[in-house]
C-alpha cells in the first residue's frame, strides 16, 4: 500500500504526486522524491524498481523481509534494513523498514509494523535548511527515529528487571523467577539483535571513506552511531544483570535445599539415637538386669526423651532446626 509520495525541491515540499508522475521529477537539480510504502505487493515493488532502477538484490531482500539489520551499498544506491520494535503488554513485536536511498529519491518499505513515519516527515519539512541536504538527510531522519524508539524499550526492560529483583527475596517460587528472567533475557537478546548490527553498519557512514550520498550528513550519522553505542552498552549491562540475577536465584535454590537437608539430617540424627536405644533393649538377651527391674521401662523412656531433648536443643543452637 502506498502511504505517500511527495516531491521536494531545495528542501521545500512541492506537492504530492502519483507514482506515474515520478519520472518527470527524477534527474532535476536539487529535487528528490520521497516514497513511503507499507506492506507493498510484489507488483508495487516491481513498479518502483523499474521507476528508480533499484538493485534487484535489494528489492529481493525487501520483498522477502525478515532481514538481519544491515547497510549495503550498490553503485549509486544505499540499501538499509532496520528492525522496528514495539513493546506492549510485556511482549516485543518485530517489524521491519527497508530504505532505498539514491541521489534523487528515498523509498521506505515498512512491513509487519503499525509504527509509521508521518512524524518524521513532518519534522523534516519543518526544517527545510536540513532537508535541502537531500535524500541523505531523509535517510538520517528515518534511522534516527527508528533508533530513538529503542530507548523506551530498554527503559521498560530495566524496569521489569528491577521489579523481578525486588520480588526475588519475597517470592517463594524461585523456579518461576528463573523462568521470568529467561523470558526477559530473550527480550534483551531480541533488542540486541536489532542494535548490534546497526552499530557496525552506521560506523561506516562517517569518518574516512563514506558513500557520496551521505557525505553532507556525516555528523548526523555520527550522532546516530553514538546512540547505538549507548544502547549497546545499556543492553549489555542489562544482560549481565539478568545473568547475575539467574545465578542468585540458583544460589537461593541451593541454599534452600541445604536448609531442608540440614533439617532432615537433624531429625534423622534424633531418631537414630532413639532407634539405637530401643534396639539395645529389644535384643531379648536372657541376662539383661534392667529388664527385670520395675524402674527399667520408665528409665529407658526417660533416657530416650532426655537424649532427644539434648539433641534437639543442640541442633536448634546450630540453626539446623
CATH architecture of one domain: 2-Layer Sandwich
Poorly predicted ranges: none
The overall average pLDDT, rounded, is 86
Distance between the termini: 71 Å
Which descriptor suits the 3D outline?
Answer: rod-shaped
Largest sheet: 7 strands, mixed
Question: CATH superfamily name of one domain?
Answer: CorA soluble domain-like
CATH top level class name of one domain:
Alpha Beta
Helix-strand category: alpha+beta
Helix content: 55-70%
CATH topology of one domain: Beta Polymerase, domain 2
Structure annotation, total helices? 10
Report the radius of gyration as a whole number of Å: 35 Å
Sheet with most strands: strand arrangement: 2-1-3-7-6-5-4
Please trace the helix and strand order, writing H or E for each element. EEEHHEEEEHHHHHHHH
Strand content: 15-25%
Tell me how many strands there are: 7
Summed up:
It contains ten helices and seven strands. It has 321 residues and is α+β, with helices and mostly antiparallel strands.
Keywords:
18% strand; 58% helix; alpha+beta; Beta Polymerase, domain 2; rod-shaped; 7-stranded mixed β-sheet; 10 helices; Methane Monooxygenase Hydroxylase, Chain G, domain 1; 321 residues; single chain
Describe the structure.
With 321 residues, the protein is of the alpha+beta class. Among the domains are: 1-129, Beta Polymerase, domain 2; 257-318, Up-down Bundle (Methane Monooxygenase Hydroxylase, Chain G, domain 1). Helices cover 58% and strands 18% of the residues. It contains 10 helices and 7 strands. It has helices spanning 42-52, 56-64, 118-125, 128-131, 135-148, 150-168, 174-202, 218-281, 289-292, 296-318; strands spanning 2-9, 12-16, 31-38, 70-74, 77-88, 91-102, 105-111. The protein has a 7-stranded mixed sheet, sandwiched between helices. Strand 1 and strand 2 form a beta hairpin. The protein is rod-shaped. The two termini are 71 Å apart.
Amino acid at each position: 500500500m502506498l502511504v505517500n509520495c511527495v516531491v521536494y525541491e531545495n528542501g521545500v515540499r512541492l506537492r504530492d504526486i502519483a507514482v506515474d508522475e515520478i519520472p518527470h521529477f527524477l534527474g532535476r537539480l536539487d529535487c528528490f522524491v520521497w516514497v513511503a510504502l507499507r506492506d507493498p505487493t510484489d507488483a508495487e515493488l516491481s513498479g518502483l524498481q523499474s521507476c528508480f532502477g533499484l538493485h534487484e538484490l535489494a528489492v529481493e531482500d525487501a520483498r522477502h523481509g525478515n532481514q538481519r539489520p544491515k547497510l549495503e551499498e550498490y553503485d549509486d544506491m544505499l540499501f538499509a534494513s532496520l528492525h522496528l520494535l514495539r513493546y506492549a503488554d510485556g511482549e516485543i513485536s518485530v517489524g521491519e523498514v527497508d530504505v532505498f536511498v539514491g541521489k534523487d529519491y528515498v523509498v521506505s518499505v515498512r512491513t509487519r509494523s503499525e509504527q509509521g513515519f508521518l512524524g518524521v516527515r513532518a519534522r523534516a519539512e519543518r526544517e527545510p535548511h536540513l532537508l535541502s541536504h537531500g535524500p541523505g538527510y531523509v535517510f538520517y531522519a528515518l534511522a534516527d527515529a527508528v533508533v530513538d524508539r529503542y530507548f523506551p524499550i530498554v527503559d521498560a526492560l530495566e524496569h521489569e528487571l528491577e521489579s523481578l529483583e525486588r520480588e526475588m527475596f519475597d517470592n517463594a517460587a524461585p523456579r518461576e523467577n528463573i523462568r521470568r528472567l529467561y523470558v526477559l533475557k530473550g527480550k534483551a537478546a531480541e533488542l540486541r539483535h536489532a542494535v548490534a548490527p546497526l552499530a557496525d553498519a552506521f560506523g561506516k557512514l562517517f569518518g574516512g571513506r563514506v558513500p557520496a550520498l551521505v557525505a553532507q550528513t556525516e555528523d548526523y550519522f555520527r550522532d546516530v552511531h553514538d546512540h547505538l553505542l549507548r544502547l549497546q552498552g545499556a543492553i549489555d549491562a542489562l544482560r549481565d544483570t539478568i545473568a547475575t540475577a539467574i545465578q542468585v536465584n540458583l544460589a537461593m535454590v541451593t541454599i534452600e535445599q541445604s536448609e531442608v537437608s540440614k533439617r532432615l539430617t537433624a531429625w534423622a540424627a534424633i531418631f537414630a539415637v532413639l532407634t539405637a536405644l530401643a534396639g539395645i533393649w529389644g535384643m531379648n538377651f536372657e541376662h539383661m538386669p534392667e529388664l527385670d527391674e520395675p524402674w527399667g521401662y520408665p528409665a529407658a523412656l526417660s533416657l530416650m526423651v532426655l537424649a532427644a531433648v539434648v539433641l534437639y536443643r543442640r541442633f536448634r543452637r546450630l540453626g539446623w532446626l
